[in-house]
Amino acid sequence: MNIPLLSSSLITPGLGTIVWMTITFAILVLILAKFGWPIILKSLKDREVAINDALTAADKAREEMKHLQAHNEELLIQAKHERDEMLRNARLTSEQIIEDARTKATAEADRIVEAARENINYEKLQAIHDLKNQIATLSIEIAEKVLKQELQSKESANDYIKRELENVNLN
Question: How far is CA 27 from CA 33, 41, 42, 142, 169, in A?
Answer without folding.
Answer: 10, 19, 22, 164, 174
